[in-house]
């Protein structure tokens, strides 16, 4: 099965958070409310393509692409 | 727990949840408020009368998402809460949550609750909650959590009285932890509890998690905990992950009964629409540039009328006093030194107020976070972080709060680079210098019907500062090495209307501080300078007329020419003149004479003194002169060339010197504090002075 990450989403598309590929970052993301099983929506990217803005847990979060790639989705 | 006479109450919560708004209501103080995470970066205390007999000490703190800090500002919260011996360790914590984003905000509450510090939960932003169609049952929630729960609209000041009443009531809460730490690491926790005689599981667990950054523990104690952690295989990160998940599970359980969504969120629609424009591929940057452009244009275009008025008022005041007061040394000091010096500062109130109004609006609307978002990728190329934009922009106002604002940058290297280059951004103290010099060398013209040429020149100076800052950052990026990772996991707040009252207050407060802070220094320096410029060693000054008459006895000078010669002879041989002459050889290649040399010396402590110094130097001797500082400078002649002293080459060289030189003691003091040593402020001083000197040299030599 191919693993998809938040970075693979297209603007407007949603996914369900599956898990994290980066241990250190996952601590922070969990505390910010990015929990496995939660929906996450790719809102839009910055004009230069990076960072991106996602909606999660009812608010908007900005992430860099190399951070978004560590959040795997179903 | 120590019960002091005055209870200490700490305001804790997620960034941007309204802590400072509440603090201001409780204490009547004016903590800075803004709509982006990380406005408050330091602790601040104030007092509040809870009722006629009880006073409480209120502590406003930086925002944090959890008790585990990632950055310097967040660590302040941990330091105060995690250490019972800390002088600010609270008797009661008021946890303020943004109720429109309830779930994530509650995480921190559950952690503080488990530290067994009495808490009150404030549900802030209820106005938004009502609009979104959430229904939160505060009573039920209070019963579930076992703490008082108070709905609030801090922006409007609603709910404050209820909070005060709740703070007065006995907060003996029957304590049962929300997260059971003991189950996860029983042996380690028991060992810590026994060794350090700690009662609460979660306190012991926190010591195991974060002993490394706990400043209240001695090296010895840290080693003890390290041994315990190793012996019982206390896996910090794993446990912390489990903790967060368990807490969220508990939160879900609490919410189930107490929160109902009646209809889907609507108000975020506005934010979505605005974001589509403000972060648009082309429009995004275009709008950002236009905003900056507007700021500089308005500083020059809108401010001129009140500025001319102030200028005139002060010079008339001088003339009036001179005609009324008896002639003498004191009158001279007042009319030639102090009044023009103060006038030289007051005149910039309109510009400073406009500048601060714009910055305040950027901060209040939530646009600042979008600038971070837009600029992150560009900033990273220069060794900075998107978050460096906040200090860089507020550095346009003043470097001191700007350098404090770097605390939100997690990565030390990025933070250090930001601190290092921020003083290169042109601060408001440079504005007076720029304004005067630009007026002297750039014609007052409008091009294309709209663009004020002097406004463009001013914008050019700010741009120059910015370019110097990011190029310096790039150089530092190549020199400094680090393995620490850099993040940009940042909340983008929803847009809000700025509160105009707050904008007005900021304008007022900042102008006031500027005038008083700068005024104090200018007053002191004006007096010292006036004395130094009026007296000199030996009896040369007394014999000035005699000496001059002798020197020019061959030439046929008119009475007026002779008087002028006497005056300049006096200034030249005064103490100030001697100092200026002493450094003249070093600054001559830059196109400056000894009079400008005096200004450079006095500007060393604070650059805004420039105008006052100019006023003092050029007023001494010009007995009958009633013109303003600007025209005095314009009429100044370079005796060697017979042309204007402030020609284009000298003016530009001086502008660039003031743009780059580190002429601010307070900035150095704050860099010392933030970097904990003299190494960085000294490097900064050396680097900026060298940069200023070399650039001014190159400019003058090529242009003249
Ligand atoms: N709609 C609404 N906005 C509020 C309320 N309380 C505060 N705000 C706004 O929320 C934003 C953040 O307020 P602050 O008081 O600066 O928040 P803070 O918690 O001190 O933020 P940091 O210092 O960054 O941690 C500002 O734009 C306030 O005007 C409220 O009850 N309702
Ligand atoms: Mg605050």
Automatic annotation (TrEMBL), chain A:
InterPro entries named among the record's database cross-references: Fe-transptr_FeoA-like, FeoA, FeoA_core_dom, Transcriptional_repressor_C
Alphabetic keyword roster: Iron
Domain of life per record: Bacteria
Official protein name in the record: Ferrous iron transport protein A
Single GO molecular function: transition metal ion binding
SMART domains reported in the protein's UniProt record: FeoA
Domain Ferrous iron transporter FeoA-like: 4-74
UniProtKB/TrEMBL annotation, chain B:
Membrane topology reported for the UniProt record: Multi-pass membrane protein
Subcellular localization(s) per the UniProt record: Cell inner membrane; Cell membrane
Main location: membrane
Location of the FeoB-type G domain: 6-173
Positions of transmembrane segments: 282-305, 338-362, 382-404, 416-443, 455-480, 514-533, 652-672, 684-703
Keyword Thylakoid assigned: no
Database matches in Gene3D superfamilies: P-loop containing nucleotide triphosphate hydrolases (3.40.50.300)
Keywords from the named record: Cell membrane, GTP-binding, Ion transport, Iron, Iron transport, Membrane, Nucleotide-binding, Transmembrane, Transmembrane helix, Transport
Family: Belongs to the TRAFAC class TrmE-Era-EngA-EngB-Septin-like GTPase superfamily. FeoB GTPase (TC 9.A.8) family.
Function: Probable transporter of a GTP-driven Fe(2+) uptake system.
Name of the protein in its database record: Ferrous iron transport protein B
Gene designation per UniProt: feoB
């Amino acid at each position: 099965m191919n693993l998809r990450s938040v970075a693979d989403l297209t603007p407007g598309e949603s996914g369900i958070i599956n898990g994290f590929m980066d241990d250190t970052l996952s601590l922070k993301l969990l505390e910010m409310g990015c929990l496995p099983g939660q929906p996450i929506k790719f809102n839009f990217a910055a004009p230069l393509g990076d960072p991106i803005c996602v909606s999660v847990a009812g608010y908007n979060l900005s992430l860099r692409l190399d951070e978004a790639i560590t959040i795997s989705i179903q | 727990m120590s019960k002091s006479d005055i209870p200490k109450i700490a305001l804790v919560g997620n960034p941007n949840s309204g802590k400072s708004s509440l603090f201001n209501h409780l204490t009547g103080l004016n903590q800075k408020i803004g709509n982006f995470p990380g406005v408050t970066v330091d602790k601040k205390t104030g007092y509040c009368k809870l009722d006629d007999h009880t006073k409480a000490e209120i502590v406003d703190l930086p925002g944090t998402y959890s008790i585990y800090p990632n950055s310097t500002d967040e660590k302040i919260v941990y330091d105060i809460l995690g250490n019972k011996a800390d002088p600010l360790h609270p008797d009661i914590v008021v946890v303020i949550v943004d109720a429109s984003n309830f779930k994530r905000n509650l995480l921190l509450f559950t952690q503080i609750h488990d530290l067994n510090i009495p808490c009150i939960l404030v549900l802030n932003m209820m106005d938004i909650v009502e609009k979104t169609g959430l229904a939160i049952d505060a009573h039920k929630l209070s019963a579930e959590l076992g703490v008082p729960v108070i709905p609030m609209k801090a922006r409007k000041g609603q709910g404050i009285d209820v909070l005060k009443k709740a703070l007065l009531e006995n907060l003996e809460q029957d304590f049962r932890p929300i997260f059971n730490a003991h189950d996860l690491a029983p042996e380690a926790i028991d060992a810590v509890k026994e060794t350090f005689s700690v009662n609460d599981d979660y306190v012991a667990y926190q010591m195991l998690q974060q002993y490394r950054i706990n400043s209240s523990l001695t090296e010895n104690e840290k080693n003890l905990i390290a041994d315990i952690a190793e012996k019982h295989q206390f896996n910090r990160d794993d446990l912390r992950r489990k903790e967060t998940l368990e807490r969220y599970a508990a939160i879900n359980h609490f919410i189930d009964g107490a929160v109902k969504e009646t209809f889907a969120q609507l108000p975020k629609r506005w934010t979505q629409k605005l974001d589509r424009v403000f972060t648009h591929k082309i429009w995004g940057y275009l709008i950002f540039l236009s905003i900056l452009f507007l700021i500089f244009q308005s500083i020059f275009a809108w401010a001129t009328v009140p500025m001319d008025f102030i200028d005139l008022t002060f010079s008339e005041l001088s003339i009036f006093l001179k005609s009324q007061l008896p002639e003498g040394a004191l009158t001279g000091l007042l009319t030639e030194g102090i009044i023009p010096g103060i006038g030289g500062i007051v005149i910039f109130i309109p510009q400073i107020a406009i500048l601060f109004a714009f910055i305040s609006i950027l901060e209040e609307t939530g646009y600042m976070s979008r600038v971070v978002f837009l600029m992150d990728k560009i900033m990273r190329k220069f060794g900075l972080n998107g978050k460096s934009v906040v200090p860089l922009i507020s550095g346009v106002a003043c470097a001191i709060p700007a350098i404090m604002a770097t605390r939100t940058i997690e990565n030390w290297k990025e933070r250090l680079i930001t601190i290092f280059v921020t003083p290169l951004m042109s601060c408001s103290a440079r504005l007076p210098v720029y304004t005067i010099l630009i007026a002297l060398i750039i014609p007052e013209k409008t091009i294309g019907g709209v663009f004020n040429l002097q406004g463009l020149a001013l914008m050019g100076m700010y741009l120059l500062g910015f370019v110097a800052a990011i190029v310096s950052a790039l150089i530092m990026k190549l020199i400094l090495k680090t393995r620490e990772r850099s993040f940009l996991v940042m909340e983008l707040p929803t847009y809000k209307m700025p509160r105009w009252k707050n904008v007005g207050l900021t304008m007022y407060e900042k102008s006031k501080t500027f005038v008083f802070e700068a005024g104090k220094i200018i007053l002191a320096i004006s007096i010292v300078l006036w004395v130094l410029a009026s007296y000199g060693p030996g009896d040369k000054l007394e014999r000035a007329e005699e000496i001059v008459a002798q020197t020019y006895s061959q030439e046929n000078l008119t009475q007026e020419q002779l008087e002028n010669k006497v005056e300049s002879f006096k200034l030249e041989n005064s103490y100030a003149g001697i100092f200026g002459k002493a450094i003249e050889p070093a600054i001559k290649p830059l196109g400056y004479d000894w009079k400008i040399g005096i200004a450079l010396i006095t500007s060393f402590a604070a650059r805004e003194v420039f105008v006052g110094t100019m006023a003092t130097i050029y007023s001494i001797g010009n007995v009958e002169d009633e013109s303003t500082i600007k025209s005095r400078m314009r009429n100044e002649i370079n005796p060697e060339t017979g042309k204007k002293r402030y020609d284009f080459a000298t003016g530009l060289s001086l502008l660039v010197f003031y743009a780059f030189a580190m002429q601010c003691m307070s900035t150095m003091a704050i860099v010392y504090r933030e970097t904990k040593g003299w190494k960085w402020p000294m490097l900064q001083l050396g680097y900026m002075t060298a940069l200023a000197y070399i650039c001014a040299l190159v400019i003058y030599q090529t242009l003249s």
